[in-house]
Structures are given as structure tokens and as C-alpha cells.
Amino acid sequence: MIWNTVTLAVSTAGRRSIAATPAASRKFATASPSPVSSAGRDHKVVIVGGGSAGLVISHQLLRSGKFVQDDIAVVDPATLHHYQPGWTLVGGGLKTKEELQRPLNTLLDSKLKFYNEAVNTFSPDNNQVTLGNGEKLGYQHLIVAPGITIDYGSIDGLPEALADPNSLVSSIYGYETCDKVFRTVEKLKEGTAIFTQPTGLIKCAGAPQKVMWLALDYWKKAGLYSANGKSPINIGFATGLPGMFGVPKYSAKLEELRKERGVEGYFQHDLVSVSGNTATFALPGGKEKVKKEFDLLHVVPKMGPHAFVKTSALANETGLVDVDAATLRHNKYANVWSAGDASSLPTAKTAAAITSQAPILVRNLLQSTEGKSLDATYDGYTSCPLLTEYGKVLLAEFKYGGEPKETFSWLGIDQATPYRAFYHLKKDFFPWVYYNSMVKGTWGGPKGWIQ
Fold first, then answer.
1. Are residues 285 and 181 in the same domain?
2. What CATH number corresponds to the domain at position 229?
């Protein structure tokens, strides 16, 4: 199908630099809403990404009542949508990966225009997105939410080790590999198990140790592990970070658990290669390396922005979409927005963060279309339901600056303490509410259901 190139007219003010404008008082002239072309190539809003952020935002925009058929377009090359927070549960033998996926097109409201294509380039000065097939989409507003990519090749030898069904090397960070994790845990009867976490950007910074705590509990129940170091299996946690977690309150509790449970801590150890049963780690500075033998290795690969984002005019120096931390609006292009993992928002990258980011972005985008000041502010809220064993979860909730922002504090609950009730939230409620409400735009996280 050949479509003609049409560029949507947007006011010059909608494209000017906004870097020096205070977030609380930004106000821009916007073009009058223009009709969607009969060819279906121009849209009021183009959303790049059909993951958690893209689905939530597209449906919340629809629910505003200000958009009609095909006003909003969603662009994503995937055919399946995965509830990725559930892959930890798969790694612990609590879920199957198949039950956590849905066909992407079945999750999109029929009023949304779906382009099942990859993105090639952004042309923000022309208000256009070029798809992988060469076709162009015009927009009045662009929302960039494609997530980030996992770079298995960043660790030498890892792709081959993951692909080898006989190796005890696995990772919960991919659909193809997450179910291998529990098989390796079941198979190990003795030896050294090492669980890694890289430096830099990753999805859900608590996940690398969630799978470790579940494995430890499994081996403990099987009589293969004890904290005194005299059991068939010993465990090490090799993290590129200087501590167990980025938020001091929760890091202190997790460090306490690590010591109580006899887990060896290898801090500021960044995995760089896997060869046979030897893992090589880089120490701070990158020049000095240490080798450790293992019998089981759980790996978290390095992650980063997609190339089409990183190389675009929308990216900052780290390759993420350069947005204001409060308003989620681009710091240069006033009609460009971003949320989720692809954004530069300085908070942990979790599905829970989307529940707070999406309403802020939607509110501010709608304010912008009416020429009003942006009056919604994101405080950096995110959450990590951190499994510490089968049956208990430490529910970490925090905002910018690593400051706790706990939902249940009003009940006098210290969320740094693992609770069984939080475990059922993680295992049962969150997967259910995700597909039944969140992706439809009706779940607000700590604020509950959205009317």
C-alpha cells in the first residue's frame, strides 16, 4: 500500500525550544485541531510503543473524550505483548510465560489506529515519523514510549551460553530465556550459584535479586542450602552497584537479609564475559578484572535505548528521550512527550512508574492542546515489589531522590519489612489488574481505579 506524504501543520510555537522555560508556567500557542486526512496518514497524536506506557497513555487519551476514530495512532512492530514483571514469577516456577502474554492487537481499542511496524527515524522539525517500511506519519503531538532494548551481546559469550540447553546460564530478562531459569534452579544440586546485576540502565533494578531470593528459598526447602556455609550450594550476588539497592532504606534491609542468609556479596563487580563455567567481572575503572567459577549463573544483560531513539534529535547525551522531569514534555520540542523506560526521567524503570507518569503526561498534553499552562507534576513515583522468599515481598515505593513514598504507611506498616500480603499483590493481583485494567487506562496504581 503506497501512501502519499502529507505533513501536518503545527504552529511554530509548538516546535520551539523550551529548555529555559520553567516547568510550572510553560504555555504555548497550539494549532487548531486539524482533521485526520482521508488517507489515514496524519494523526492528532502518534504514540511510538505498544508496551505498558503506550497502551496506558493511548487509552487514557481516548477516555478523555477529546479524540475520535483514528485521531490517535500506536506504532509497534510486535505481535505479542508481555507482562514483563511476571517473568520473575516464571523464573521462580510460579507462572508460565505463556499465561503472561496477549496478542497486542487485542489490547488496543478499535478507535486507535495501529501500525504494526518498526520506526526508522523521527523528524521533529517536520512533525513526522518514518516507519521501517518507508511510510511517513504526520502528527500534532508525538509520544515516544518504545521502552529500552536488551543487549545480550554486551557480555561476551552470553548469547551462546543462554542458547545452550545444557548450560546452567539463564536470565529472566527475555521471553525466550525466562523459563530456563527455574529449570536451572531445579537442576542444581551442589556448587556455586552466582546472580548478577550490571552497572547502568536496567529495567526494574530489584529484579536481579528477586530471582536469587526465590532460588535460595527453593534450595533451602530442598535441604540444599543453609546460611552457615556448610551446605551443598553456596550463593553469591555480583552487582555493579556499591550496595544492594539504590534506595538507602530498602538497601539496608536487603543487606541485612544478605548477611543473615549467608549470601556472598561481590559489590562493584560488572560481568563482562562468560566462558564455560567461568565468569569474568570488571572492577571499578574497568581495567582490573576478576574471574569466578560457577555451577549456575543468572545473568542480567546490559540495556540501553533503541538505536532509532538514541541517534535521533529527541535524545539526550545518554540516548534517552530528553524530557522535563516534572511535566514529561520534551525539553526542546513542545509537542513531543515521553514516558516509561525510553524517557530520561531519573527514576527506576518499572511498570508501576507508568501508573503515575501516564496521567501526568495525558493531563499536560491536553492542557497544551488548549493553549493552557502545564499544571500536572510528576514526583518520580515508582515501585518495586521485591520478592524475598516464596510467600513474602518487600514493597519498595519511592520517588525522586530515593525518598520512600509508601502507600501503606498510614496503616503503620513499615514496607521495608517483607509481608505475605504484599506477596499476593505481586503474584496474583498485579498480573490480574494489569491486563484487566491498567493497559485499558483505568488503573492508577496507589490511587486505585480511575473513573
1. yes
2. 3.50.50.60
